[in-house]
Amino acid sequence: MFSVSAQPFDAREPELTAVVLALPEDDMELLTERIDMSHALLPIANRPMIWYILQWLEQGGILDIKIITTRESEADIVSYVEVYKGIANITVKALSDVNGTADALRQVAPLIKSNFVVVPCDLVIDVPATHFFDIIRIRRPAVATVFCEVMKSEGGGGSVKPRHLPMCVGIDQPSSRLVLLQDIDKKSEDLALSMSLIRRFPSMALSDKMQDTHVYVFQRWVLDYVSAHPEIVSLQEDLLPLLVRAQSQPHLLEKNGIDRYLPASTAQRIDEYDTGVQFGQHEQAEHSDSTKSDSLEVFVYV
Question: What percentage of the chain reaches a pLDDT higher than 70?
Answer without folding.
Answer: 76
